[in-house]
Every structure is written in C-alpha cells, then in structure tokens.
Design a protein that fits this description.
With about 110 residues, the protein is α/β, with parallel strands linked by helices. It has one domain: Ribokinase (UDP-N-acetylmuramoyl-L-alanine:D-glutamate ligase, 3-Layer(aba) Sandwich), CATH 3.40.1190. Helices cover about 15% and strands about 40% of the residues. It is built from two helices and seven strands. The strands form two sheets. A four-stranded mixed beta sheet has the order 2-1-5-6. The relative contact order is 0.25.
Length: about 110
C-alpha cells in the first residue's frame, strides 16, 4: 500500500517525467517474483497514463481516487552524484473508509 508518485527528473538541463514512489517500484519487483499480491495505491486521475503499464500487469489492485499525485522534482548536478529535491504536488493521505478488498479497479 502506498502512493504512486510522478518524478520530474532534470539531468544536464533535460527534464523528463517518470513514474515513481516506493509502492510503484515495490509492485514492479513483487510482480516479477509472484503474481499473488495485492496493491492499494492512489494518484490523481490526470496522471493515469504514467502508471497504466504496471497496473495492467497486477492481478489484485485497488486505485483510490485522489485530487493529485505526489510530484517530486529531482535536479542532479553534472556528475549525477548530488540531488536537490522539491515537492510540487501532494496527494491526500489514505482514508481507511475508502479501502476494500483489492480488485481489478483501474
């Protein structure tokens, strides 16, 4: 259970948006090991395209509606060794009243 995030990565002046967050990367790792796990996540409805690929491969998933997706900006120096991070958007916290047994709910 956890929020998927949107990571705005800037390296050598080039910006790209990438899916991210602990729940995102953990679900990718678990999916490669076993098809038998459940995921509860949340993100803004306008950002679905960033997460469709991984969500379509998970059997038991519940996506809770949210007004926004956590969005981080990660700026790296030219060596890639130093990062400055900013938070641009914050999702609402999880609400236990929204949760139910996960199902294929995209």
């Amino acid at each position: 259970m956890g929020h998927f995030t949107l990571d705005r990565s800037i390296l050598e002046g080039v910006m790209q948006y990438l899916p991210g967050g602990t729940a995102f990367y953990t679900s990718m790792a678990l999916n490669s090991l076993t098809p038998s796990f459940s995921l509860i996540t949340s993100f803004g409805s306008g950002d679905t395209q960033f997460f469709e690929r991984v969500l379509s491969s998970i059997e038991n998933v519940e996506v809770l509606p949210n007004k926004a997706t956590h969005e981080f900006e990660n700026s790296y120096d030219s060596s890639g060794d130093h990062r400055i991070q900013y938070v641009h958007r914050k999702a609402d916290p999880f609400n236990t009243l929204q949760m139910k047994a996960p199902s294929r709910n995209l």
